[in-house]
Structures are given as structure tokens and as C-alpha cells.
């Protein structure tokens, strides 16, 4: 029997009281070590060591799946971050973040993820991701980002 790929898309929004200059650097797999507990990232290729177009990162934790992140677009002027993420022999997914300013220094980060399995095992995994509460995951990221930014602002005030 021939393998039948599975694909699904999910969307969500994170809101944050911050400027684009504060938030944009945090949208980097390596920088996420600073604000997401348990996150670990290895920089495979990047001239700066951080996110930039054509950078490649590797993560395993916190989700216990080896992922390779290739940055397709990292453009603060156009307020977009776009990755192609590969879980070898399992699935690939496109992960795009579009950032919009809602006024009063409130940013809305629109997350779009499109998963496509490349093996039967990958189909099983993304079927599980499909049933996951993505809004709950994004709510947690929103809380973590806000806490981190509040802490950074407090440190600057104390200097």
C-alpha cells in the first residue's frame, strides 16, 4: 500500500504590550532559550549566531522530537518571520509569524503552521498535534513572553 501524506493547518494569535524592536529578536530559536523554560537550541548555521535569513537551528527539547529550523524570512521591516521546520523521517511544517500593531503598543503576532507528514509515523504524530489545544499553547507563550519583557524592562529601570 502506498503512503498517503497527511496535512493540516492551524492558526492562532499572541498579544503582547511591547514594541516591534523588543519582540522581534525574541522570535529566534536560539533566543527562545532565554524566555521559554526547558527550551534548548543548537545553532547549525548563522553569521550572527541568531535568527537571520537562511539560518539553520536544531532543537530537541522541550518536545523530544528532533527538529531542524530553516529561516526562510526574518524581516523586521515587513514584520514577518517564516520557517520551514523538518522532523527527519516524520514530517515538515511551515511556521509563519506575521506581526501587526494594534495601537497602544499592543502587538498581535499571527501564528500559522502547516504540517505535512512524510511517513506513516509522521502521520500519526501530526494527527495527535491536530487534536492538541493550540490556543492553550499560545496562551502559555504569550504569558512567558510578557513575563520576560517585564523582567527585562525592570532590569533596565534598576540600572
Categorize the overall geometry. globular
Question: Which architecture does the CATH hierarchy give at level 2?
Answer: 2-Layer Sandwich
Average of the residue pLDDT scores = 96
Q: Could you tell me how far the N terminus lies from the C terminus, measured between alpha carbons in angstroms?
A: 65 Å
Strand content: 35-45%
| Order of SSEs | EHHEEEEEEHH
CATH superfamily: START domain
Q: Radius of gyration, rounded?
A: 16 Å
Helix fraction, binned, reads 25-40%
What structural category arises from helix and sheet content? alpha+beta
**Strand segment tally:** 7
As an assembly, this protein is single chain
The helix tally amounts to 4
Low-confidence stretches: none
User: How many strands, which pairing sense, and closed or not: the largest β-sheet?
Assistant: 7 strands, antiparallel
Task: Estimate nothing, just give the exact number of structural domains.
Answer: 1
Under CATH at level 1, the class stands as Alpha Beta
State the CATH topology: Alpha-D-Glucose-1,6-Bisphosphate, Chain A, domain 4
What is the topology, as strand order, of the major beta sheet? 1-7-6-5-4-3-2
Amino acid at each position: 500500500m502506498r503512503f498517503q501524506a497527511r496535512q493540516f493547518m492551524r492558526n492562532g494569535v499572541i498579544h503582547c504590550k511591547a514594541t516591534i524592536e523588543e519582540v522581534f529578536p525574541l522570535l529566534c530559536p536560539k533566543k527562545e532559550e532565554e524566555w521559554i523554560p526547558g527550551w534548548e537550541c543548537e545553532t547549525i548555521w548563522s553569521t550572527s549566531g541568531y535568527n537571520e535569513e537562511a539560518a539553520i537551528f536544531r532543537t530537541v527539547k522541550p518536545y523530544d522530537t528532533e527538529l531542524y529550523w530553516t529561516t526562510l524570512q526574518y524581516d523586521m521591516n515587513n514584520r514577518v518571520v517564516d520557517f520551514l521546520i523538518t522532523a527527519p523521517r516524520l514530517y515538515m511544517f511551515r511556521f509563519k509569524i506575521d506581526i501587526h500593531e494594534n495601537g497602544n503598543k499592543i502587538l498581535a503576532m499571527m501564528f500559522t503552521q502547516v504540517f505535512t507528514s512524510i511517513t506513516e509515523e509522521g502521520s500519526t504524530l501530526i494527527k495527535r498535534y491536530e487534536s492538541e489545544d493550540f490556543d492553550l499553547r499560545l496562551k502559555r507563550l504569550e504569558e512567558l513572553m510578557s513575563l520576560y519583557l517585564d523582567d527585562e524592562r525592570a532590569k533596565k529601570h534598576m540600572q
